[in-house]
């Protein structure tokens, strides 16, 4: 199982993700303001050189709108700034540009430059929802069509620019709009790359989380198949351990959860070192299996060794003892249900292992006759005799005392 603290990429928390979206929205707004101010500055210079007051008035409105949005951003009023820019500044400026095309010195000039500007604004404000953006694009398109087809007719204001000047202005505006559109596309690609990186990081974090909840091979299978499953295993061993004295001790120890966490963390380390599978904890009970999901011939030996180490480890916690039961045989193991996935075991082997623990002796490791037959001769066991097992009748059991030293 993997350590969730070793995630390879930083993954946003909810708060961090909201902050990221806020920074992104502010960046997009400042980009839009930059486009608007640049556009207004260029045409203000041109208008000043020709004493073109209508055009200066138009650019003045643009500057005022940009200043208002910027002041909202400076005060931290992101929502007001965003809605002002989208619903007030851009429509007003677009409307004035339309009037410029039918009543000003630019009345004979084509306004194709409005198209990339419209598309750029449509992309820039994707967080306003598809309906709002579609309405905005439709209004801009109708203005463009009305101007180009001469459907708007107003008295001319000021002397028109020469055709050559209008041609030059048209190309300047077109390339300015195209550049703006390309920059917005660049921002979108950058955001897309960041989103993909975050998605990959979140997927890895999910994999790490699943592998801490499920055996690695089961986690991979669940992700691959996308559905729950159960498999039969003919040879495995199951261990149940219960902490004796925990209930009474918990009444006098303030940090009960911390105590249980320390105990089970120690057990987790021993289980992982033995390359066995922790199945679950239920209150102060601990369940481990050997021989699943990967088969191993020494499943009983490996689990008996772990039981001895668990009994030794509990001595690190004064006032507590452990009662352990082990049984071997066939089980069904798998992941079922739709929520809160857990890898679990079912079958008589599991039930008998649970009875071995519950009807065992404090400080002892009680094993079934089936498990005893699978252990190597160096394991020291005392026969306890026969005990009554609910639903099974009389069963011969043994107490595992230890393992003889090699040599």
Description:
This protein has 407 residues and is of the alpha+beta class. Helix content is 57%, strand content 18%. It has twelve helices and eight strands. The protein has helices at residues 14-49, 53-74, 78-103, 114-124, 130-148, 163-213, 216-225, 246-250, 256-273, 299-313, 348-358, 369-374; strands spanning 229-244, 277-282, 285-290, 321-335, 343-346, 365-368, 379-389, 393-403. Strands 1, 2, 3, 4, 5, 6, 7 and 8 form an eight-stranded mixed beta sheet that branches. A hairpin with a 3-residue loop joins β7 (379-389) and β8. α1 (14-49) runs parallel beside α3, α1 runs antiparallel to α6 (163-213) and α2 packs antiparallel against α3. The longest helix has 51 residues, at 163-213. It starts with 13 loop residues before the first helix and ends with a strand.
Q: In brief, what are we looking at here?
A:
With 407 residues, the chain is an alpha+beta fold. Helix content is 57%, strand content 18%. It has twelve helices and eight strands.
